[in-house]
Amino acid sequence: MSVKKKMPIRWGMVGGGRGSQIGYIHRSAALRDDTFALVAGAFDIDPERGRAFGVDLGLDEARSYPDYQTMFAEEAERSDGIEAVSIATPNNTHFAICKAAIEHGLHVVCEKPLCFTVAEAKELKALAEARGLIVGVTYGYAGHQMIEQARAMVKNGDLGEIRVVNLQFAHGFHSAAVEEQNPSTRWRVDPKFAGPSYVLGDVGTHPLYISEVILPHLKIKRLMCVRQSFVKSRAPLEDNAVTLMEYDNGAIANVWSSAVNAGSMHGQKVRIVGSKASIEWWDERPNQLSYEIQGEPVRILERGMDYLYPEARLDDRIGGGHPEGLFEAWANLYRRFGLAINGNRGLAPAGIEELVFPGVDAGLEGVRWVENCVRSADAGGVWVEYE
Question: Is residue 152 part of a domain?
């Protein structure tokens, strides 16, 4: 039986042009394992600036396009056209670009939020599933090795019955009206571009997704949310929010989403409390996981070590003792996206059915959570059944 030779996935980008921090992270992560090959792009709303940037990246000038519509149409006519595309543009463009990409038969990796409404997310999910296409969402922190260790510990019963989930992503960089001087922040607090929320969607969905990875058996039953605009000019969008949640097994959770936690560098922490033990992960120290068994000294688990579960060691790149960071976490996600896409291309490795990555369902759930939080907050911070 002949074996198909694995070839890099021909890949394009929309957005992420010159000066874009997130675009650089996408490219660095996607290209790290030779799973993707960047061959085309529509990098900027300014066509000439985007063309020049593509050329600087080493692309054929003819494949550095003025807009995504032109790129999708012209690449579809090529025998070597793109097979996948990443979307790194403002939030209000995600739905239209993602839908157009799927309709052109492209796999998609999209910045979060996937879109603004549950109805839009369900439409994208149906379109992708009907065409057998992969849609990934870049919840990049979930690529850290210790998240898989936490998932395995819960699965293997190390914590006992899960009782309490504490989640936060609360930084302080927007504790003043920095958007007045910073265009890259300005769109994030404008409902026309950011959608129905600021920090709930921008930062709160990150630890929420991590909790979904670690605790896939828990489902939200109802929630209550309050949100504030401490920098008044940001209203009606919030720069701080607190969400309480009840799960279907009786466990409870809280999520603090904030951009006004003055003095905090990042402040993303995930703490899972069980009947026997607790674990805690902090993204400013991502190589470590605190493991706290009742009545015993605290244990600090380190990435890359042989005592970790095999699921965590699969993500190891450089061995124990070496610190890994955000680029490695994103590269882990892009490797998983690539494995899923290669499965679609008939190049599926063994164990592909066990692959965990933020796909279209994760994008849908992030949008669903924000929609329910906004509904609760706008009704005066009342409990609402999770819809």
Answer: yes
